[in-house]
Automatic annotation (TrEMBL):
<dbReference type="Pfam" id="PF07731">
    <property type="entry name" value="Cu-oxidase_2"/>
</dbReference>
<dbReference type="InterPro" id="IPR008972">
    <property type="entry name" value="Cupredoxin"/>
</dbReference>
<feature type="domain" description="Plastocyanin-like">
    <location>
        <begin position="51"/>
        <end position="159"/>
    </location>
</feature>
<feature type="domain" description="Plastocyanin-like">
    <location>
        <begin position="366"/>
        <end position="462"/>
    </location>
</feature>
<dbReference type="InterPro" id="IPR002355">
    <property type="entry name" value="Cu_oxidase_Cu_BS"/>
</dbReference>
<dbReference type="InterPro" id="IPR011707">
    <property type="entry name" value="Cu-oxidase-like_N"/>
</dbReference>
<dbReference type="InterPro" id="IPR011706">
    <property type="entry name" value="Cu-oxidase_C"/>
</dbReference>
<keyword id="KW-0479">Metal-binding</keyword>
<keyword id="KW-0560">Oxidoreductase</keyword>
<dbReference type="Pfam" id="PF07732">
    <property type="entry name" value="Cu-oxidase_3"/>
</dbReference>
<protein>
    <submittedName>
        <fullName>Multicopper oxidase family protein</fullName>
    </submittedName>
</protein>
<dbReference type="InterPro" id="IPR006311">
    <property type="entry name" value="TAT_signal"/>
</dbReference>
<dbReference type="InterPro" id="IPR045087">
    <property type="entry name" value="Cu-oxidase_fam"/>
</dbReference>
Amino acid sequence: MTLFTRRGLLKTAALAGIGGVGIPAMGRLGGWAAAAPEPMVLQTAKIQTKLMDGGLTRDVLTYGNAGMPPVLRMKKGEPFAARLVNAIDDPTTIHWHGIRVPNKMDGVPFLVQPYVYTGDHFDYVFTPPDAGTFWYHPHCNTLEQMGHGLTGVIVVENPGDPKFDAEFVLNLRDWRLGDDAQFIDQFRPRDAARTGTYGTVRTANWLDQPQYDAPAGGLVRLRVAITDVTRIYAFRVDGAEATVMALDGNPVPERFSPDALLLGPGQRMELAIRMPDDEGAIVSLRDVRGTKPKILANLRATGGSLKRDVRDIAPLEANPVKEVDLTAAQHISLALSATAENVPSDGICGSLGYSFWAINKVPWPGDTPDPTAPLAELKLGKSYVIDMENLTPQSHPMHLHGMSFKVLSSSTRQVQPLISDTYLIQPNEKVQLGFVADNPGDWLLHCHIIEHQKSGMTSYVRVV
Ligand code: C2O
Ligand code: CU
């Protein structure tokens, strides 16, 4: 009831802003209507849907009420507004993964905003500074909420983007379902202490191996986001010429073909694919990692060939990320390790009750800053280099909120100077990530294998 009324008010205020109808503006809402477009409502819902043969799956979570969370389209440099309305039986928030938002909009409960309780709402408004592929998800009880469906893809468009003949967005994720198509335990402690617990049903856009039509001989932009809580992918494209144009929301300095390209949870890639000339020919995006390789999605060539050339695609415009000053940069050492402490802790916001992992020897299982102090306090505008070392036998997709870093060097491989928000660090690798601390606030830094994050591999930096 309350919800409905508030939403009504919001619509009224927005209308008043546009039409000048004589309804007194409701303080904040009125002001907001003038500054931003009418907010899109993202209402959490519990639904039943078909994810595998054998019946409908109950207790699936989404935003809206029609299947997968919508692909959100924003425009670089233009304000975006969304109202999160919480209609599920659990507190939640939204984090805009990879988008450099103001701290108050970052969606981390307690650190930057209150919980959004059942029946309550929270208004997000920000202007995405960067174009690319991003995603959104809760930052509360995340293993459960993301595991049950709350992961959506964001496309930030740039008017200067090159033209393609078709564009597709793939939301890649798994589900932990039993033979009866119902959810089973989201994790097993012994797996959480290793690679994380894998899902049993693998999907792209909530479908098993979907197929989409694209013009023969045409150029396709394929945006792929790994929104799974655990799985690391090794991508390959069969049946067509394909090049990686962007990773994690930023153009790559040099395009390359995805030959078993490893990307972890939270990461995104954009591919330029030149469809085959023959009608009916199939192009497959595959995951070739592990013992059970899988076709994730297919594209089928249709119509007469457009005879395009992949070299026709102009470079993507670089995002306005400040250049790190390496001569002045201060270094921050960061060691990722397993921890021997195995204390059950009853943290809030979905702690798993275990600590298996640590950053600089401190396991931080919850989402609250208490009692851990920030890993480092950074000066606004200064350059920093994170010297990160992985002392574990597992890979970890390490994600920094609020700021983008540049990959400077790795001890084990040749790296491009990519701009990113998530780096998949391999066992025994040391990597240097440089960035300018240009966004004030408290910013999480954590592994995006959610079981690792929730059992210790989390910390945060403070920019003041
Ligand atoms: Cu994708 Cu801390 O999150
Ligand atoms: Cu990890």
